[in-house]
Amino acid sequence: MTDLTRRTMIAAGLAAGATPAFAATPTAAPKPWGATPSARQLAWHRRERYAFIHFSINTFTDREWGYGDESPALFNPTDFDPDQIVGAAKAGGLTGIVLTAKHHDGFCLWPTLLTEHCIRNSPYKHGKGDIVGEMERAARRAGLSFGLYLSPWDRNHPEYGRPAYVDYYRKQIVELCTRYGELFEFWFDGANGGDGYYGGARETRQIDAPKYYNWPSIIALVHQHQPMACTFDPLGSDIRWVGNEDGIAGDPCWPTMPDHPYVQAEGNSGVRGAPLWWPAETNTSIRPGWFYHADEDAKVKSPARLVQFFDESVARGTNMHLNLPPDRRGRIADHDVAVLRSFGDAIRASFATDLAQGAVASASATRGPAFAPAKVLDGNRDTYWSTPDTVTTPTLTLDVPPGRPFDLIRIREHLPLGVRVTRFAVEAEVGGTWQRLATHACIGAQRIIRLPAPVSARRVRLVILEAPACPAISEFALFRSVAPVPVAPPKSSDPTVLSPRGWTVVAASAPGAEALLDIDGSTVWSLPAPSAASPASVTLDTGKAQTIAGFSLTPWRHPTPDAAPPRGYRVETSGDGRHWTPAGEGEFPNIAYALSTQRIAFAAPVQARFLRLTFTAVAKPAAKLAIADLGAFTR
Ligand code: FUL
Ligand code: CA
Predict the structure, then answer these.
(1) Any idea which ligand is nearest the CA of 557?
(2) Which of 134 and 62 is assigned the larger pLDDT?
(3) Which of 63, 210, 421, 430 has its Cβ near the most Cβ atoms within 10 Å?
(4) pLDDT digits over 375-413, tens only?
């Protein structure tokens, strides 16, 4: 039998074992199973990838969290170009922008009359600028959607922690929801409460967030003005946090969650069959920090690393939210743009041609002509293959045109009917033998399987192994991946940063301190938690006498419950490694939560060759101290 005749016979239902069991009368659609998405959640699931933009006072103070006492005069981008920023996102294949209208420091990027702590009092456009509006218009010009982040925590506001601040916060929401057209997302940050400026009080204020904000009423306020905006992430919001800031969704990552306040471990994987449709958004930054820091220019993720992020977010049915921090000019650095373009091109090319097009689909059971197997090939997410209610573990086979090796498989469920498949396998017939390519739990919005090597199969089948209800599969597609073009490693553009490459560890209170000097955030120096009686210390030789104005310390960004960064430091310098001069001592602000690089300036720059750092406590209770990197700067 020629390949063509075989395929024609299958199409006509004549091949052995492929007889479709069509019902005599048109059959009704299956009933939804379990929780199902709202219209705005459904629209959100189709976005797949979008950008986060962290741009504010911190860009100009080189911090990750501002204290709230920063002068608006500091906000002064020299060459703000919203089209360039949006263009970078678009090159990366991102379909929307979520901008930090206000971060924890309270500085507002739009000309609000609700506070003086805003762009009206900055030198940018002589106080006549509106970064939110300019970004919004640029996004729309480029055909991208627009959304906003508004930090609930406000370390500037004098009333933070009291009812008056919640009134203020609600007014901010109304301004943002009514001035900037349709928003697709509204982001409430979980980081909330702690020390801050608070109008000059300079104290610590703790709140009980769910009670203080009354989240359901705040979410309703957003939806009143923006019915299609998905809110992130308190209980009752449309989308949830994935439980880490490293861009890793669980495998599986169910879009359903129990109806109780967020639990981090549940958030990463979701809970099968739980009552809330509360899907995960997977976020991370293209750089270690959320805000731009010149000394992270050499630490931009590679295009291949972004493909890994795609595989650990989009491919597990969650949306990927990739942060791109504009620099002090108000632009995305050239290197980051090159990385985005390479990543975007690779994804575009990988998914440009569905190799299953032209295949013939057959199934072990079919609900009726409206739910025929071919519905998985029609490129329409609203049509799907299904089976009679009683058939929950059927098989769907694609008879693929020859000569089409593939290494990516994309399967989608028809989400309005809920997540129906619990476990499935994909198998391929290669050289006459069926082999199992992969087994997973959860399909959901989509499941993309990347094979270790291309497969040339005569037939490919989806085997539903376990399901509480008949399936509703809207797509079964095959692709051949295109690897991203490598981008030459970045160079640091900041001449004041001293590279620790070539430095040596002279002494350390525990082995492994070389990991501090490799400019690699994933390798760490880890040792038992120090105390005042038994401090940890490390002595570094920078190779030559030079001007040193301060040091930087990067915590380990993947802390386990038993490891924490240092709470504070004592730093000394030396010209000869024997005679030491104190250069400073203090606590790292917010290191336990933000886990961002700390830049500590000495009282004045010194001439020195050696640095000695001493740590006497961890930032939160933990058995171990862990530090990823150390560095220094000259100015
Ligand atoms: C966190 C914040 O504390 C970070 O600064 C950043 O905005 C990130 C997206 O969320 O909770
Ligand atoms: Ca390291």
Answers:
(1) 2
(2) 134
(3) 421
(4) 999 999 999 999 999 999 999 999 999 999 999 999 999
In this structure, which ligand is nearest to the CA of 558? 2
Residues 463 and 502 in one domain: no
Read off the CATH number of the domain in which 62 is found. Answer: 3.20.20.80
Ligand 1 pocket mutation, candidates 63, 188, 290, criterion most atoms within 8 A of CB: 290
Same-domain status, 575 and 475: no
Tell me: do 337 and 359 sit in the same domain.
no
CB atoms within 10 A of CB 624: 18
Structure tokens at 491: 């160079």
Residue 227 neighbours by CB under 8 Å, 6+ apart: 40
Whether 184 is in a domain gets the answer yes
Task: Give the residue, out of 189, 239, 321, with the most ligand 1 atoms within 8 A of its beta carbon, to mutate for a pocket test.
Answer: 189
* d(C-alpha 61, C-alpha 434), whole Å: 60
CA nearest ligand 1 atom 9, residue: 290
Atom of ligand 1 nearest to the CA of 65: 5
Domain shared by 311 and 375, yes or no: no
Within 8 A by CB and 6+ apart from 378, the residues are: none
> pTM of the entire structure?
0.87
Digit-coded pLDDT (tens) for 104-150 = 999 999 999 999 999 999 999 999 999 999 999 999 999 999 999 99
Quote the distance between the C-alpha of residue 134 and its chain's center.
Answer: 24
